[in-house]
Write a structure and sequence with these properties.
- There is one protein chain.
- With 379 residues, this protein is α/β, with parallel strands linked by helices.
- It folds into two domains: 2-170 and 359-375, Glycogen Phosphorylase B (Rossmann fold), CATH 3.40.50; 187-355, Glycogen Phosphorylase B (Rossmann fold).
- It has 14 helices and 15 strands.
- A seven-stranded parallel sheet has the order 3-2-1-4-5-6-7. A six-stranded parallel sheet has the order 12-11-10-13-14-15, with helices on both faces. A two-stranded antiparallel sheet has the order 8-9.
- Helix 7 (213-227) runs parallel beside helix 8 and helix 7 packs across helix 12.
C-alpha cells in the first residue's frame, strides 16, 4: 500500500497538531506500507528526523492559508491520483481538507472551533467555513476524533454518521513531562526568561474570548486580594485574535506588576515551565482535547480548569472545576488549591495517575490500524 500524509497545517511540528504529527511519525514502523509526505516546501526537513527515509513531495507554492485551502479543494485530487495513493491521511482535517478524493481518506479532527467561532476567529474564508467544512467532513471515509466531545460535535454540527467516527485520544509524552525536584531556588531560569516563584501558569495562545484570559486576570486579582500571597500569573503563549484586549485587561489590573506575558514560548521548554509552577489554571471555554491539563498533571502540578467542552472528559476526577464565566468561582478554586494542602496533594496524586492513562503508543497503534483498514490493507 502507498499512503499519502498531508503535512499542511501542522505548523512545522510546533503546534498541538504538529506535536500529534511528530509523535505519530515516530511510531510508524519502517516495514509494511509505503508512506509519503506532502506539504510546504519550507517543511521539507521538518519531519526528516522522525521519518528520514520517506519521500517528501512539496506542493502549493503560493504561501498563505487561503491558497492552501484552494489547493486542497481543486488541486489535491489530481495530485493524489498522480501519486497513486491507496489512501490519504489528513492529521488536521478540521483545518485542511479536500472536497473530493480519488482514494479513500482518513482525517483527524482535533476540534470544531472553526464552525462556531466568530467570523474573525474563523480567520481565513470567514463565513464560508460552515458551508464547506461539514460537506468535506462527510466525504471522509473515516474520521478520528480526539475526544468524545469532538465526536458529538461532528455528529451534531456536521451531520457525520456515528459509524464513521472513532475516538482515539491523544497521548502524553511522560519522558518529557514528569515531576522534577523542587529546589530552594526562588527563580526558574529558562533562557531567555526568568520566572520568580511562586507562580500560577496558563500556557495557551493569547486569544480572546475563547481562551478566557481576561476572566483569569480578574480572578487572579481576587486571589491576590484575599490571600495576600506573592504569586505571579504567567501567561505563556503567542498573540492571536483579541490579544490586545487581554493586554489592556492586564495593564489596568491592580496587580499588573505580577502578570507576566512570555509571548511565543518554545515547546521544548514547556516541561520545565510547568514543573516550576505552583498550580495551573485552564479557563478556556473551548478545547477539543485538554492537552494542557495532561501536561500539567504529568508534571506533578495540580490543575483547576473550566467545566467546559472536553476538559472534564480529559481531567475526570483529577482536577478542581469552575464555571468559566464566573470570576468568583474561578478565584475560589485557585484559593483552595493554594491554601488547602490536602486538596493540593490529592489533586497532584490523582493528576499523575490520570496523565499516565494516555499513551502515544496506543494512539499511534490504533490510528495506523484505521489507516490500513481504510486503505484496504487490513490489520
Amino acid at each position: 500500500m502507498k499512503i499519502g500524509i498531508d503535512t499542511f497545517a501542522c505548523d512545522g511540528g510546533t503546534s498541538g497538531v504538529g506535536v500529534y504529527m511528530m509523535q505519530l511519525l515516530k511510531r510508524i514502523p519502517p516495514s509494511g506500507s509505503r508512506y509519503e509526505l506532502f506539504g510546504w516546501e519550507f517543511d521539507r526537513f521538518t519531519f526528516s528526523e522522525v521519518s528520514p527515509n520517506w519521500e517528501f513531495i512539496p506542493q502549493c507554492f503560493i504561501n498563505g492559508k487561503t491558497p492552501n485551502v484552494l489547493w486542497h479543494l481543486f488541486k489535491y485530487p489530481k495530485f493524489a491520483k498522480s501519486r497513486g495513493y491507496d489512501a490519504c491521511f489528513f492529521p488536521a482535517a478540521h483545518r485542511r481538507l479536500p472536497y473530493g478524493s480519488p482514494c479513500p481518506t482518513i482525517g483527524v479532527v482535533h476540534d470544531m472551533s472553526a464552525w462556531w467561532g466568530s467570523r474573525k476567529a474563523k480567520g481565513y474564508l470567514g463565513s464560508l467555513i460552515p458551508l464547506v467544512l461539514p460537506n468535506a467532513l462527510r466525504r471522509l471515509d473515516r474520521i478520528i476524533a480526539v475526544s468524545g466531545w469532538v465526536k458529538q460535535e461532528l455528529m451534531e454540527l456536521a451531520g457525520v454518521k456515528e459509524s464513521r467516527i472513532e475516538v482515539v485520544p491523544n497521548g502524553m509524552d511522560l519522558s518529557a513531562f514528569h515531576p522534577r525536584p523542587r529546589n530552594e531556588e526562588s527563580v526558574v531560569l529558562i533562557q531567555p526568561f526568568s520566572f520568580r516563584r511562586p507562580y500560577i501558569l496558563y500556557a495557551s495562545r493569547i486569544e480572546h474570548p475563547i481562551k478566557n484570559h481576561i476572566t483569569l486576570i480578574n480572578a487572579f486579582g481576587i486571589f491576590k486580594e484575599r490571600t495576600k500571597y506573592p504569586h505571579r500569573l504567567v501567561l505563556a503563549g503567542g498573540d492571536s485574535n483579541g490579544a490586545d484586549k487581554v493586554k489592556v485587561a492586564a495593564a489596568t489590573s491592580r496587580y499588573r506588576n505580577d502578570i507576566f506575558f512570555t509571548g511565543h514560548f518554545p515547546s521544548k521548554n514547556l516541561p520545565e515551565l510547568y514543573s516550576g509552577a505552583d498550580i495551573v489554571v485552564i479557563p478556556s471555554m473551548y478545547e477539543g482535547f485538554g492537552m494542557g491539563v495532561l501536561e500539567a498533571m504529568a508534571s506533578g502540578v495540580p490543575v483547576t480548569c473550566a467545566r467546559a467542552a472536553s476538559l472534564p472528559e480529559t481531567a475526570e476526577h483529577a482536577a478542581l472545576y469552575f464555571d468559566p464565566l464566573k470570576v468568583e468561582d474561578m478565584a475560589d478554586r485557585m484559593i483552595t488549591l493554594t491554601t488547602n494542602r490536602d486538596v493540593y496533594r490529592e489533586c497532584r496524586t490523582q493528576g499523575l495517575k490520570r496523565a499516565a492513562a494516555f499513551s502515544w503508543d496506543r494512539c499511534a497503534e490504533r490510528t495506523l490500524a484505521i489507516i490500513q483498514e481504510t486503505g484496504g490493507g487490513g490489520q
